[in-house]
Every structure is written in structure tokens, then in C-alpha cells.
Write a structure and sequence with these properties.
Low-confidence stretches of chain A: 150-178
Helix content of chain B: over 70%
Number of domains of chain B: 1
Distance between the termini of chain B: 23 Å
Oligomer: heterodimer
Shape of chain A: globular
Radius of gyration of chain B: 18 Å
Distance between the termini of chain A: 25 Å
Strand order of the largest sheet of chain A: 1-2
Strand content of chain A: under 5%
Mean pLDDT of chain A: 85
Order of helices and strands of chain A: HHHEHHHEH
Largest interface: A-B, 127 and 126 residues
Number of helices of chain B: 6
Order of helices and strands of chain B: HHHHHH
Number of helices of chain A: 7
């Protein structure tokens, strides 16, 4: 690993650009999001382009990036370990969709729009934090992510027992997907 | 279906989407992590023993970047935000929505960013299933809220 300051600067920059993207795209306006979800009203297809643009860049770049042995600033990629389609995935996603449709706000835009000091948005953010913590407490069993040293031979880092904690830690429970 | 061309904003939508993709690619390329917001925020609340110090600080600075971006938008692109009626009923609806969004995204392992952007970019079948599920649920809720007769709402 090289330079915690550099890692933090990179994460900050990514968060900043992500935020600007959300704002410019209009995702930070609940009425815009509801306009997209309102298929049976005056449908606004803008979000198709938001997601399409983001996934287009992602499809091309992720394939190239994950071909690397490691990321630039740390030794391992941290990726979701679970691969099955289970009830947890469908129930959780359906609940998430219900909340998304109820307010037109999802986690990223909520944090960005919180700077406006809007009371409904702040209420959303506080309740969202409570919901995230509640899910960990009342519905545990979520698989952690796995750290892979390299994409082609991924076996080594994953099979190490989690009880020993050498440097760097092999199978730390990580939560990055979301 | 009637498409509201007055509301359709293809250029900023595409530009914003490209920026989101670039930011997610940068986080994966540099920090080896997926830009899933609900997971990143949830990780901040995990007990110190369950997560690495590196993970914790990187998640913290990513969220700080999100909020800093909000401050930049406030000055440079105020059209990103709209006034939301602070009536008690609206605050209650947003709080309920936030609670369900938090619980659901943690249970389902992701939200619009983790499944919708990063997961689809990784060609994850789980994320495709999750994205179709939350889209359908959200569209159904908006249909009920906006178009069904009052006694259903």
C-alpha cells in the first residue's frame, strides 16, 4: 500500500465528481426522478441517459481495470462475494424501490442534496442511516466482500482463514457495494 | 405513452451520467472499490473491528467528496436543486422513504449506484435482477401515488 493521503485524496475526488454528475444529471431533484418513474404520466426519459451514460463508461472501463493485477493505490480489489439470486436480494431491492418511489430520492442524491438544508431531505438522510444500521442489526447474514489480489488467479487471498490478521488483512468484511 | 419533451433534458442527463461513470471508474482504478453509496455509508456505521482502517477512511473521504460536490453545485449549478415543501406530511413521507431505502438497500446489497451503475458495469446477474426489481417497485409506487383514485392512496 502506498500513501493513505493519496488514497483519501483519490476517494474524495471520486466522490466529488460523482456528486457533480448526479447534480448535473438532475438526480438531486426528486421531481425529476419521479418524472422518470411516472411511466403512466408525462414520462421524462432523462434518467435512461443518466444510467446509460454511467453504465456505458463503466462497462468499458471496468473490464479494462479488472484485468489489472491490482488497483493503483492499494494492493487489492474489494468486490462483492455473493453471487446467488436469493430472497434477500429481491426483498431488499423491492423495499428499496418502494422507498425510492415514495420520495424520488436514493442514497447518493440524498447526501448531495443535504447541503441545501432541506428539512425533508435531512429527514430522509437520518432515517436512511437508521435503516442501514437496522438492517445490519435485525437482518444480519449479509456476506462480506472479498478482496482479490489479482483477477486471473483469485484463489490465494480468499482461502486464507479470517482469524489470523497479518498485514495486509486477508478477508476483512468490507461493505462497498450499495 | 406521452413523453414530456418539456422535461426531457438529454444533454445534462448524458453529461451527468458520463461523470458518474468516470467517478466510479476512478474509484475502482485507484482505490479498488465499487462506488455503491448505500454500502459506503453503511460501512461508516460498522464497528471498527469489522472493517479495515483503510476502508473506513476511504469511505469517509468519498462521502466528504459527495457533500463537497453538493456545495459546489449549490454555487455553480443551483438548478441541481429544487425547493421541497417542508410540510409535516412531506417530512414524514421522506423519513419513511429514507428508512425503507436504507433497510432495503442494505438487505438487497445495493442501491441505484451499487447495483444500477457498478453492478451492471460488472455484468453482474444479481445486480441486473436487483435493478429490474427496484425499478418495477418504484414505478408501481409512483403509479399508485399519482394515478390511482384517492381511496387507494
Amino acid at each position: 500500500m502506498k500513501g493513505p493521503a493519496l488514497r483519501n485524496a483519490a476517494a474524495f475526488g471520486s466522490g466529488l465528481v460523482f456528486s457533480l454528475g448526479l447534480g448535473i444529471a438532475g438526480m438531486t431533484r426528486p421531481s425529476k426522478v419521479i418524472g422518470f418513474l411516472d411511466l403512466f404520466g408525462a414520462w421524462d426519459p432523462s434518467l435512461v441517459l443518466v444510467m446509460g451514460g454511467a453504465v456505458f463508461v463503466g462497462l468499458v472501463s471496468f473490464a479494462l481495470i479488472l484485468r489489472r493485477a491490482s488497483p493503483v493505490l492499494v494492493s487489492r480489489f474489494v468486490l462483492p462475494a455473493r453471487h446467488s439470486l436469493d430472497a434477500r436480494l429481491f426483498l431488499g431491492s423491492a423495499l428499496f424501490g418502494v422507498g425510492w418511489g415514495l420520495a424520488g430520492v436514493c442514497p447518493g442524491p440524498a447526501l448531495v442534496a443535504a447541503v441545501t438544508g432541506s428539512v425533508p431531505v435531512l429527514a430522509f438522510v437520518a432515517a436512511m442511516a437508521a435503516g442501514l444500521v437496522a438492517a445490519d442489526r435485525f437482518a444480519p447474514g449479509r456476506d462480506g466482500d472479498e478482496e482479490t489480489a489479482a483477477a486471473p488467479p483469485p484463489a490465494l487471498a480468499v482461502t486464507l482463514p479470517a482469524t489470523v490478521a497479518p498485514q495486509p488483512p486477508p478477508a476483512v468484511r468490507e461493505t462497498t457495494c450499495g | 405513452m406521452p413523453v414530456a419533451t418539456v422535461n426531457f433534458t438529454p444533454v445534462p442527463a448524458l453529461a451527468g451520467g458520463l461523470l458518474i461513470g468516470i467517478a466510479a471508474a476512478a474509484l475502482l482504478f485507484l482505490n479498488g472499490r465499487l462506488a455503491g453509496i448505500s454500502g459506503i455509508v453503511a460501512g461508516l456505521f460498522e464497528p471498527a473491528g469489522e472493517t479495515s482502517a483503510e476502508g473506513r477512511s476511504v469511505r469517509g473521504t468519498f462521502v466528504a467528496g459527495l457533500i463537497a460536490g453538493g456545495a459546489v453545485l449549490l454555487v455553480a449549478w443551483p438548478a441541481a436543486f429544487e425547493a421541497i415543501d417542508p410540510a409535516p406530511a412531506t417530512v414524514l413521507r421522506f423519513a419513511l422513504a429514507g428508512l425503507i431505502v436504507g433497510f432495503g438497500s442494505r438487505l438487497g446489497g445495493g442501491c441505484t449506484s451499487g447495483h444500477g451503475v457498478c453492478g451492471l458495469s460488472r455484468r453482474s446477474v444479481r445486480s441486473l435482477a436487483a435493478t429490474l426489481t427496484f425499478m418495477a417497485a418504484a414505478i408501481a409506487v409512483v403509479l399508485v401515488r399519482l394515478h390511482l383514485p384517492g381511496w387507494v392512496r
